[in-house]
Specification:
The chain has 758 residues and is an alpha/beta fold. It contains 28 helices and 11 strands. Helix 11 crosses helix 15 (358-380) and helix 12 packs antiparallel against helix 14.
């Protein structure tokens, strides 16, 4: 069957492995089941076995991302045979528990595979349909009554059949996205109702299920999980201080369990459930803290950072293959669910153990409290006894709660500032009069941070590009002034930096960004537009509509869909920076009769993971980008780069060098007396490159061939050239807008261009 599917759809090695794994797994498990039951394969089992082979084919096709025209017929036949094996079992009188379980597991695997396939287009939430059966199975390890056999219900069989049919229809692509989502949501709702009914019935009959014997291994795993959650740090540097201390929170919980009488069943259940849920939430927050510190060099903010879930999903899809992205997202979702469900179950299990061994628990509690008191008294007397009991998790929880009032006040103050804009009423004839007739390009170079110019392993290559660019631009008559800007973000979330520069507000979180884009605050783009410029954005990373773009007031927006690119994708970047700049020139600057242009251009070839960095090509050959065909396959891939931090850092340096080379080459070839470029980084790269204490500074340079343009910013004290020295002026990024407006205000000396039209 796999050979035939290979001829029809072209299976990859991973697809072959997936199909063979299903086939071998079914053979082994069915063989064990038959041996335990002491019988052979019955006629209904033959039909189910054929279905399982088709499910193996579905697994191969899903992994290979095969065309629905091949996948759907195989899945339809597998679903149809589900009706056949039941009739065969009843007609032949060979129905059995093993046959029913075999049929059910094949159904569950088919639904899981189809939900995985559909999740690639409809969203990761569709995996809940496929995972429902397995989540219930996992829960039965803690609550054995969930694993009992429920009464047979015809409606349950109908709901199960509906899931397969709906997933096949959704995976076929016959319906538009919105109806597909509606149908999937209805199917999930039916499944949830069916599971709820079954669980309710099992709960009412739980007393008939014999309790499982206690196993030492399960208790050991529960103890290890709870201990790890309590001593886990939220900052890696503090791991050593916590790891060997007895958690005070555990001592306090044991004391509460022993003090609350066993007859107060409801109160004990509340205490146990509350402690388990609280521990799970704190463990998740710690894990998020570690992740945010590693990438963004700041802790996770529980009030606002949940908004980044969609960005994480988009980044995974853009940075990995269509095959790997759903797997990674499913693994991440499974880990989160396991954490939030597993820790409360572990606390519950350990509580039962404490109740069963209350005398031993009392003695252990007394010993722990006594040892703690001895160390406290010794320290109070001036001794040096080490602290054997620590309260790191309790302290962490208190910090999370205590910071909420201040953050709420800061949010309210920020929202007031979005409506109180000091430049909103500047007359149009005064706005930016010092730049009349100039094309002004604000160019963000992705991840171009201070580390690129100060790290001994990175600076030589980047410096060489800047020195060569300085000499070439000088020949073309350009001069520059450079300094540092402190970005509100680190490692990612570039749009926060863009918003801060454009609006003169410190936008350091998604909550602030969301409040900003719904406010009347004036962006730099809107101010240029009011003064008569044509305003444009070039955002090649965008692959779909950008609703927030309306806030900035662009007259036109270029993205990956309408810029005319016909070349290959380079990992996360949709196109090389060289093409982005050349296309912008053709679309906006090449015409002789036009208004001056103000544009924000985002260069993304230096975006993480810094793999598949393009090479410069002859500008005359750039065309529609087809000249880059075949280039990505010749360049180091992400798996090759991310095997060591040294390779990652080297790849980052090469990516920044490429982006800067493309920009400087563009300015040198196309620049004239009426071109002004503000080039800057958006944020530092992730800590794997920058380190944990690198700061948030990024380089910024103003380039022009008109001396009058640079004379207006002499008072800023910025340094000559393209490379700011370590001691160059440092501004916060939100200071730039108002300083820029003041420098080129109509009250200053004009540049000689009386009319905004060129």
């Amino acid at each position: 069957m796999l050979a035939g599917l290979d001829l029809a759809a072209g299976l990859t090695r991973a697809a072959w492995l997936a199909g063979l794994t299903v086939g071998v797994g079914v053979a082994v498990l069915l063989g064990l089941g038959l041996a335990r039951a002491g019988r052979g394969v019955g006629p209904a089992d033959v039909v189910t076995l054929a279905r399982s082979n088709l499910v193996g084919g579905v697994a191969a096709l899903v992994v290979a991302r095969a065309d629905p025209a091949v996948l759907v017929p195989v899945a339809v036949v597998a679903l149809a045979l589900d009706w056949v094996d039941g009739r065969v079992a009843r007609r032949s009188g060979t129905a059995s528990d093993l046959g029913g379980r075999f049929d059910m597991e094949v159904d569950a695997l088919l639904v899981l595979l189809l939900s995985w396939h559909v999740s690639a287009t409809a969203g990761a939430w569709v995996l809940l349909i496929g995972l429902a059966r397995y989540l219930k199975l996992a829960a039965s390890w803690a609550w054995p009554w969930l694993g009992a056999t429920a009464r047979a219900r015809h409606w349950a069989r109908v709901v199960a059949a509906v899931q397969g049919v709906v997933l096949v229809v959704a995976g076929s692509g016959l319906l538009p996205p919105t109806p597909t989502a509606v149908v999937l949501l209805l199917a999930l709702a039916l499944l949830a109702e069916s599971f709820a009914t079954e669980i309710r019935w099992l709960w009412r009959h739980r007393d008939a299920v014999p309790p499982r014997p206690r196993r030492l291994a399960g208790t050991a795993v529960a103890l290890l999980a709870v201990s790890a959650a309590l001593v886990a740090p939220h900052v890696w540097e503090r791991a050593g201080a916590w790891s060997w201390q007895l958690p005070l929170e555990a001592v306090a919980y044991v004391a509460v369990v022993l003090l609350v009488p066993q007859r107060l069943t409801r109160a004990r259940q509340v205490v146990t459930a509350g402690a388990g849920v609280l521990l799970a939430v704190l463990a998740l927050l710690k894990a998020l803290d570690l992740g945010f510190r590693a990438v963004l060099n700041r802790p996770f903010d529980p009030l606002v950072d949940w908004a980044y879930v969609d960005e994480l999903v988009a980044l995974v899809h853009d940075s990995t293959s269509e095959l790997l992205a759903p797997v990674l997202l499913a693994a991440l979702a499974t880990a989160v669910v396991a954490l939030l469900v597993g820790l409360p179950l572990a606390v519950q299990r350990l509580t039962r153990v404490l109740d069963a061994r209350r005398p031993a628990a009392r003695r252990g509690l007394a010993a722990a409290v006594s040892l703690w008191l001895v160390t406290v008294l010794t320290a109070a007397a001036g001794g040096s006894a080490p602290a054997v009991v620590g309260a790191g998790t309790a302290s962490y929880a208190w910090h999370q709660v205590a910071r909420v009032p201040g953050e709420l006040r800061a949010r309210a103050a920020f929202e007031r500032m979005t409506h109180d804009d000091p430049v909103a009423d500047i007359p149009a004839d005064r706005l930016l009069a010092g730049l009349r007739g100039k094309d002004v390009l604000v160019v963000f170079v992705e991840s171009y941070g201070r580390v690129a110019l100060t790290d001994p392993a990175l600076a030589p290559g980047v410096d060489a590009v800047l020195e060569d660019g300085t000499a070439r631009l000088a020949e073309a008559g350009f001069a520059g002034r450079s300094a540092w800007l402190t970005s509100p973000t680190f490692g990612a979330l570039s749009w926060l930096a863009h918003a801060s520069l454009q609006t003169g507000l410190w936008v350091d979180s998604q909550a602030r960004y969301d409040a900003l884009v719904d406010s009347p605050r004036m962006s730099l783009t809107r101010l240029f537009g009011r003064a008569g410029w044509r305003t444009v954005a070039s955002v090649p990373a965008n692959t779909e509509d950008w609703p927030q773009g309306a806030f900035y007031g662009f007259d036109h927006l270029y993205d990956s869909r309408n810029v005319g690119y016909r070349g290959p994708r380079f990992g996360y970047p949709t196109m090389p920076d060289q093409f982005t700049l050349e296309a912008f020139w053709r679309h906006e600057l090449a015409a002789r009769e036009r208004r001056p242009v103000m544009a924000e251009i985002d260069l993304i070839s230096s975006h993480a993971p810094w793999s598949r960095t393009p090479r410069m090509v002859d500008p005359a050959l750039v065309g529609d980008g087809s000249v880059f065909d075949g280039m990505p396959e010749q360049l180091p891939s992400e798996p090759e780069i991310w095997t060591s931090p040294q390779r990652v850092r080297a790849a980052y340096g090469e990516a920044v060098e490429y982006s800067l080379t493309a920009l400087l080459d563009f300015v040198a070839r196309h620049g004239d007396d009426d071109l002004v470029v503000v080039a800057l980084g958006d944020h530092q790269p992730a800590t794997v490159v920058s380190g944990a204490d690198a700061g948030h500074d990024v380089p910024v340079t103003v380039l022009s061939r008109d001396p009058a343009v640079l004379e207006r910013i002499e008072a800023w004290g910025w340094q000559d050239g393209l490379r700011p020295a370590d001691d160059a002026p440092v501004w916060r990024m939100d200071a730039f807008r108002d300083q820029f407006l003041a420098a080129y205000d109509g009250g200053a000396e004009d540049t000689g261009h009386a009319d905004v039209n060129r």
